[in-house]
């Protein structure tokens, strides 16, 4: 089983010809609410990929919280570990202009409450084979999750996003680190993905650097880094491609598949999500991933 400790957010996306300056009001052309947050996205991705998934996190006592919970339960994710706090759900206020540029305000809201584990959370992690962590919830909670996983022999997969300096203890408890190109560069101080991956092996035993349409790069101690190409697809929306990749990878590895096969399967899952519009709504189901690889 897969446990996910992380964020749940509602993205509030407004489209405008030109972003407003301070004091200015502009008329937008469209508005969407998109359920997201890296934690919730990885949970939905893993569940659709066929995993038994439990989510540890928090939503607010508002309509966004209700919807975020429903998105998870609809995907088959166990939400007993998803608390409802008194305040607002986490939100991301995104303004997209005609040139495709965006400005974003993230308000953590309920996610700020995921700073410590309950006894129930510890039991959920201990019962899992893999724990998925990201950095959109407070670091003390992430660390507590990693520590608990370590203590119970649960494999820790860390997506180091948003990029930030990581405490040694978190890296020491991480089995697999999955940064994208930018995060790998920020963590290692080198922009060449291959050199970055090799540098990160001094801190963790396995690294997968995702490279967007260029696929990914897998590095493990004692072996040469391997590139895995991404299937060529017409990209409609790359939102949550990385989360889809991580969710599917965790499921495949949890089933005992070799890394090369698991990476190919995760790449297929991510490519399928990129072909369709939407964040978690675009994530493929297990049979779609299998069918895509068969053709
Ligand atoms: P993130 O979304 O976290 O920034 P990436 O952009 O590196 O991460 O994408 C994660 C994975 O999703 C890639 O390794 C690749 O497998 C897949 N992917 C992303 N963009 C594309 C694309 N345009 N075509 C095919 N696969 C893609």
Describe the protein.
The structure is a single chain. The protein is α/β, with parallel strands linked by helices. It has a single domain (2-9, 36-90, 110-294), classed as Ribokinase (UDP-N-acetylmuramoyl-L-alanine:D-glutamate ligase, 3-Layer(aba) Sandwich). The protein is 36% helix and 23% strand. It has helices at residues 38-48, 63-74, 119-126, 139-151, 168-172, 181-188, 193-200, 241-254, 259-275, 286-294, and strands spanning 2-5, 9-16, 30-36, 53-60, 82-85, 90-97, 102-107, 130-133, 155-158, 176-177, 206-210, 216-220, 226-228. α5 (168-172) links the parallel β9 (155-158) and β10. α3 (119-126) packs across α4 (139-151), α8 packs antiparallel against α9 and α9 packs across α10. The longest helix is centred in the last third of the chain and has 17 residues, at 259-275. The structure holds adenosine-5'-diphosphate. The site of adenosine-5'-diphosphate has 19 residues, from α8 and α9. Adenosine-5'-diphosphate binds at residues 180, 210-213, 215-216, 230-231, 233, 235, 238, 241-242, 245, 267, 270-271, 274.
Radius of gyration based on Cα positions = 18 Å
**What name does the CATH topology carry?**
UDP-N-acetylmuramoyl-L-alanine:D-glutamate ligase
Number of strands: 13
Poorly predicted runs of 5 or more residues: none
CA-to-CA gap between the ends? 29 Å
Residue share in helix: 25-40%
**How many structural domains?**
1
DSSP helical segment count? 10
* Structure classification: alpha/beta
**Could you name the CATH class?**
Alpha Beta
Name given to the CATH homologous superfamily: Ribokinase
SSE succession: EEEHEHEEEHEHEHEHHEEEHHH
Query: What sort of overall outline do the alpha carbons produce when their principal axes are compared?
Result: globular
Strand content bin: 15-25%
**Which sheet architecture does the biggest sheet show?**
9 strands, mixed
* CATH architecture identity: 3-Layer(aba) Sandwich
Q: How confident overall, as mean pLDDT?
A: 96
What hetero molecules are bound to the protein chains? Answer: adenosine-5'-diphosphate
């Amino acid at each position: 089983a897969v446990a996910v400790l992380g964020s749940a957010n509602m993205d509030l996306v407004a489209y405008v010809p030109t972003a407003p300056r301070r004091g200015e009001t502009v008329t937008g052309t469209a508005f969407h609410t998109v359920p997201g947050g890296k934690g919730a996205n990885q949970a939905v991705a893993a569940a659709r990929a066929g995993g038994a998934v439990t989510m540890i996190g928090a939503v607010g006592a508002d309509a966004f919280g209700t919807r975020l919970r429903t998105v998870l339960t609809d995907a088959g994710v166990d939400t007993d570990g998803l608390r409802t706090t008194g305040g607002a759900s986490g939100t991301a206020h995104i303004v997209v202009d005609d040139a495709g540029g965006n400005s974003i305000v993230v308000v953590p809201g309920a996610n700020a409450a995921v700073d410590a584990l309950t006894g129930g959370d510890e039991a959920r992690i201990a019962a899992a084979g893999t724990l998925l962590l990201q950095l959109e919830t407070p670091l003390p909670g992430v660390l507590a999750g990693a520590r608990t996983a370590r203590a119970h022999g649960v494999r820790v997969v860390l997506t180091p996003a948003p990029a930030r300096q990581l405490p040694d203890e978190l890296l020491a408890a991480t089995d697999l680190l999955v940064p994208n190109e930018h995060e790998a560069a920020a963590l290692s101080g080198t922009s060449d993905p291959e050199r970055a991956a090799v540098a990160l092996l001094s801190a963790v035993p396995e690294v997968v650097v995702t490279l967007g349409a260029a696929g990914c790069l897998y590095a493990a101690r004692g072996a040469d880094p391997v590139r895995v190409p991404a299937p060529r697809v017409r990209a409609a929306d790359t939102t949550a491609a990385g989360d889809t990749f991580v969710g599917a990878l965790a499921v495949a590895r949890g089933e005992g598949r070799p890394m090369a096969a698991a990476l190919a399967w995760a790449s297929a899952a991510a490519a399928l999500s990129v072909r369709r519009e939407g964040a978690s709504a675009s994530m493929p189901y297990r049979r779609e991933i299998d069918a895509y690889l068969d053709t």
